[in-house]
Design brief:
InterPro entries: 6-PGluconate_DH-like_C_sf, NAD(P)-bd_dom_sf, UDP-Glc/GDP-Man, UDP-Glc/GDP-Man_DH_C, UDP-Glc/GDP-Man_DH_C_sf, UDP-Glc/GDP-Man_DH_dimer, UDP-Glc/GDP-Man_DH_N, UDPglc_DH_euk. Belongs to the UDP-glucose/GDP-mannose dehydrogenase family. Its EC number is 1.1.1.22. Pathway: Nucleotide-sugar biosynthesis; UDP-alpha-D-glucuronate biosynthesis; UDP-alpha-D-glucuronate from UDP-alpha-D-glucose: step 1/1. It catalyses: UDP-alpha-D-glucose + 2 NAD(+) + H2O = UDP-alpha-D-glucuronate + 2 NADH + 3 H(+). The protein is of the alpha/beta class. It has two domains: 197 residues, NAD(P)-binding Rossmann-like Domain (Rossmann fold, 3-Layer(aba) Sandwich), CATH 3.40.50.720; 237 residues, Rossmann fold. 42% of the residues lie in helices and 14% in strands. The chain is built from 17 helices and 14 strands. The strands form three sheets. Strands 3-2-1-4-5-6 form a six-stranded parallel sheet, with helices on both faces. Helix 6 links the parallel strand 5 and strand 6. Helix 9 packs parallel to helix 12. The longest helix is centred in the middle third of the chain and has 31 residues. The protein is elongated and about 75 Å long. The structure holds uridine-5'-diphosphate-xylopyranose (2 copies) and adenosine-5'-diphosphate. The site of adenosine-5'-diphosphate has 20 residues, from helix 5. One uridine-5'-diphosphate-xylopyranose binds next to helix 9.
């Protein structure tokens, strides 16, 4: 099959950047991205892209209308495509069997059904969304329920990009993983997709496995990463009760090459659309396959994450004389991590809701995520102000709570901020990114994560 047309169904955080980089690296392939959300497609075709991601705009501008197209015409896209990537959303089910744990596959199933309806020849269908293991099988059944005698090959090609570094991760991935059926047709389909990535990814970094290994690897990778964060955060609690310093502990532990230095940063907790969802998926799968001990083991990673944000708010309350009622608190950062406007599962949201319950008044500042913050807190009761200017956010506040590790927070004039605040002024650094000794010198009472607080009383 000579391959010329790639279609991606779902123009979100995964499909958008991934297709932009494929189009950029494969000028001879026509890449079309479709979505049912017309506003999203219009935004991809405009100067205001629907998601913020460093470097994305340049790539999109370079390729758009050359070999990268955004459209709402899903039937036409399906008819013309040789390879179809499916990257629709697969949120955790909120209803029925498996609610709160299993993945909600309704969008995926609808997509499979529209492929069946509109396809006029056989195609390679690539799962890009994070899915429970064995989803490919369900997908295959739906696709092969067609009465046109069309043959489909299903591949799993999980996405490992992290938001904020998506373009870099796509251009220079640690690995690309492609899973397929262990049949001659399956292997041919794998090779077809390998040949796309091989244009810019060294061959030895393209790993091929069977379908189920590929699907499970995605869940396991995210579970192991989240587990590292929860492990470190659990130890940060112990550090705060002792004389140990979490950065010293992880710095020294990470020097062991078996442990490694990355992903050991203590925080108010992990967020993002993947970690919690994927672990819940794993937990559900383990339960389903009769492994309750394994399910409990992984569920604890999520419980520890929830404990960490509760603990943070508890520390704020304890420091501020056991009440924040009526106190103004500046929230620095609402995104779940730096360099993104994404706020899905952001620990900042959970901290804000807990503070509102305590009747605090919030001034929220974030360089990119204020729009999403407003949507997330729409139904919340209490006083919330959204401020583009961090100095305005801190003015008259009793405390600053750093929620996101934005670089810009390090470059602020904290003396000016201190002078404008109520006294005693408190600073809770939920990311350990600021110079705590310098802040203490200015006059702040400083509460880092996993380290001794620096207080003037
Ligand atoms: C993650 C995976 O890294 C990526 O491979 C997968 O494809 C999608 O899920 P992402 O959610 O975009 O990516 O961000 P990531 O950098 O993994 O951070 C997740 C959360 O963990 C963030 O809230 C981050 O602040 C937190 N984190 C990360 C820590 O608290 N400490 C760390 O040391 C690292
Ligand atoms: C360990 C630490 O590695 C060492 O730094 C510390 O000083 C003492 O404890 P040790 O117990 O000698 O050293 O052996 P290690 O290689 O760490 O293995 C410990 C156990 O884990 C062994 O039973 C080993 O078989 C098992 N293991 C290790 C696995 O099952 N899988 C692995 O991937 C690694
Ligand atoms: P992710 O982080 O996995 O990319 P997003 O929610 O950002 O998730 O993106 C998923 C996209 O998939 C959304 O823009 C949504 O409108 C789109 N989508 C969901 N169902 C369908 C469907 N049946 N056909 C086309 N697009 C769909």
């Amino acid at each position: 099959m000579s391959m010329k047309n790639i279609l991606c169904i779902g123009a979100g955080y995964v499909g958008g950047p991934t297709m932009a980089v494929i189009a950029d690296r494969c000028p001879d392939i026509k890449v079309t991205v479709v979505d049912i959300n017309e506003r999203r497609i219009a935004a991809w075709n405009s100067d205001e892209l629907p998601i913020y991601e460093p470097g994305l705009e340049e790539v999109v501008k370079r390729c758009r209308s050359r070999n990268l197209f955004y459209s709402t015409d899903i039937p036409k896209g399906i008819r013309e495509a040789d390879i179809i990537f499916v990257s629709v959303n697969t949120p955790t089910k909120t209803f029925g069997a498996g609610a709160g744990k299993a993945a909600d596959l309704q969008y995926l199933e609808k997509t499979a059904r529209s492929i069946v309806e509109h396809a006029e020849n056989g195609k390679i269908v690539v799962e890009k969304s994070t899915l429970p293991v064995r989803t490919a099988q369900a997908m295959s059944r739906i696709l092969h329920s067609n009465t046109k005698n069309l043959k489909f090959q299903i591949l799993s090609n999980p996405e490992f990009l992290a938001e904020g570094t998506a373009i870099r991760d796509l251009e220079n991935p640690d690995r690309v993983l492609i899973g397929g059926m262990e049949t001659p047709e399956g292997e041919a389909a794998i090779e077809e997709l390998v040949s796309v990535y091989a244009r810019w990814v060294p061959r030895e970094r393209i790993i091929t496995t069977n379908l189920w290994s590929s699907e499970l690897t995605k869940l396991v990778s995210n579970a192991l990463l989240a587990q590292r964060v929860s492990s470190v955060n659990s130890i940060s609690a112990l550090c705060e009760r002792t004389e140990a310093n979490i950065d010293e502990v992880t710095g020294a532990a990470g020097k062991d090459s078996r442990i490694g230095p990355k992903f050991l940063k203590a925080s108010i907790g992990f967020g993002g659309s993947c970690f919690k969802k994927d672990i819940l998926n794993l937990v559900y799968l383990c339960g389903h396959y009769g492994l309750p001990e394994v399910a409990d083991y992984w569920e604890q990673v999520i419980r520890m994450n929830e404990f960490q944000s509760r603990r943070f708010v508890g520390n704020m309350l304890a420091a501020m004389f056991n009440t924040v009622a009526d106190k103004r608190i500046a929230i620095f950062g609402f995104a779940f991590k730096a360099d993104t406007g994404d706020t899905r599962e952001s620990p900042a949201c959970s901290v804000c809701l807990q503070l509102l319950e305590e009747h605090a008044r919030l001034n929220i500042h974030d360089p990119k995520a204020l729009g999403n913050a407003k949507l997330d807190l729409e139904g919340a009761t209490g006083e919330i102000n959204y401020l583009e200017d961090p100095y305005e956010a801190a003015e008259g506040a009793h405390a600053i709570a750093v929620m996101t590790e934005w670089k810009s927070f390090r470059e602020l004039d904290y003396r000016r901020i201190f002078d404008s605040m109520e006294k005693p002024a408190f600073l809770f650094d939920g990311r350990n990114i600021l110079d705590h000794a310098a802040l203490y010198e200015i006059g702040f009472n400083v509460y880092p994560i996993g380290k001794k607080a620096l207080t003037h009383f």
